[in-house]
Amino acid sequence: MSVAVIYLKTSYLKMGKLCLPTVMGFGILFAMEKRVKAIANPFRYGQAVSGAQYYDRDAVGESLYRAIAGGASNVVLYAPRRYGKTSLVKKIISRWSEDGFTCLYFDMMKIDSAERFCEKYAAAVYAAENGAEKALRSLGALLSRMRPKFTIGDDGTPGVELDFANRKFSESDLEDVLDLPEKIAGGKRSFVVVFDEFQEIAGMSQSIPMEGVFRGCIQHHKSVRYVFLGSRTHLLKRMFSERSRPFYDSAKMLHLEKPPIDESYEFVKNRFASAGMKIGGGEVEKVLEISQNIPYYVQALSSEIFETALSCGDSEVRKEYVGLAMESLMAMKREQYETVVGSLSGAQRNVLSALAAQPTARFDAKYRRTYGIGPSSTVHGALEKLVDKGYVEKSVNEYYVGDPFFARYLTSSPYEITSGMSSKRAGK
Ligand SMILES: Nc1ncnc2c1ncn2[C@@H]1O[C@H](COP(=O)(O)OP(=O)(O)OP(=O)(O)O)[C@@H](O)[C@H]1O
Ligand SMILES: [Mg+2]
Question: Which of 27, 212, 351, 426 is buried most, with the most CB atoms less than 10 Å from its CB?
Fold first, then answer.
């Protein structure tokens, strides 16, 4: 049965994902067949995207592609969280592969020790060689001191287990593993190795100077080019720009900006259209404003709006759906945000909330008084911690809360901070 949706003046009552139109004055509820339910949501977020879910980035993608294809041995690509670094590099990896490079993408994020790194990295080299018999033999020989055991997981993923049980793991084990691509290439072909979230090596070992060992090894590699990605931009930039650090001045630095706003606009509009749903210009602009034009948040909010419209049985995005979608996203995120806020000191909470209300470059006396965040020394101590933890980003012009949804939560959440803030809140 198809349903005639009556476009009388309606209000919408949202219950979880269920939206029931109520005709004003009559309170009649329509049971609606969700014919549109079968349509797949055209937005994706939470993992790297490609194909139709991907837009723009041509300019920086081209610079990245050319830098490596043209012979640069080290390139850094940095941007705040959720700007699309991983998606971009994965797209460019396919171009390097077509050019004949053997490409290896390696995420440092969940690696908590140098030993674990070795196992995972050896497995990644093995996988980049498609688990070939010849590669297996070379890896076995090159890693013989570590008594490697090669495995293939249920999903076909090659794995390597290394055995350090009878002796202490040492720097030279790490060096052996880092040298694998160079040795396997044997001067006959070239590798591109992408280290994602590279800044994480800093915390990987108490006893081994990871940065020094990495740099010491890879600077001798003739057949391997390296791309370093990272979202904790201040840590990554420091690594490559401080004179005292091993990687000082050793890479071409590329910065991934937000996409041009008009391309984001077209993307959102077209993706809705591709699923047969109309959205007006004003609503798209609202999406871009709330999400600050950061790709992850653009897709997350668009996705939720799409679901809201579907659950209302609508093929057009109504103005109120943006607010409903935002409420629903906030409900999903609330617990996570509460945990973060609960883990901060009072001074950090105050500075974070002040920045959520008003990003700034200078915490001058007027700003500090307005938000009641205390003396300059307290503010700067708290700020440093917030930047380190990744909740606050610094652009050329100002400090700001990196997650725009978190910023919204902070400016509307009920927890209290010092008095200066509450008057600002009241006006919101
Ligand atoms: N070019 C793009 N086009 C459309 N959406 C994109 C694009 N790049 C990223 N996104 C959106 O942002 C999300 C995060 O992308 P990605 O993981 O590539 O970013 P990242 O910068 O590596 O994030 P993180 O800082 O979490 O590592 C994707 O799931 C997708 O929703
Ligand atoms: Mg990433």
Answer: 351
CA 296 – ligand 2 centroid, Å:
11
Determine the structural domain holding residue 400 and report its residue range: 344-428
What integer is the mean pLDDT of 116-136?
88
Q: Give the atom of ligand 1 at the shortest distance from the alpha carbon of 87.
A: 18
Task: Answer yes or no: is the C-beta of 181 below 6 A from any ligand 1 atom.
Answer: no
Query: Counting atoms of ligand 1 from 1, which one is nearest the CA of 53?
Result: 4
- Residue 22: the pLDDT is 36
Please say if the pLDDT value at position 42 is more than 70.
yes
62's CB contacts (< 8 A; 6+ apart) are none
For residue 275, being part of any structural domain is answered with no
Cα(275) to ligand 1 centroid in Å equals 21
Q: What is the pLDDT of residue 3?
A: 34
pLDDT tens column, 68-89: 999 888 999 999 999 999 999 9
Query: What is the reported pLDDT for 19?
Result: 57
| Cβ(266) – ligand 1 distance below 6 Å | no
**Structural domains in the chain (count):** 2
Do residues 358 and 224 share a domain?
no
Segment 268-292 mean pLDDT: 97
72 and 203 both lie in a single domain? yes
Which residue is closest in CA terms to ligand 1's atom 19? 84
Residue 58: its H or E element: helix 58-69
Q: Which ligand is nearest to the CA of 231?
A: 1
- Placement of tokens 């055991």 in the chain: 149
Residue 210 to residues 171, 180, 206: CA-CA distances in angstroms?
Answer: 9, 17, 9
Q: What's the pTM value of the predicted model, to 2 decimals? A: 0.86
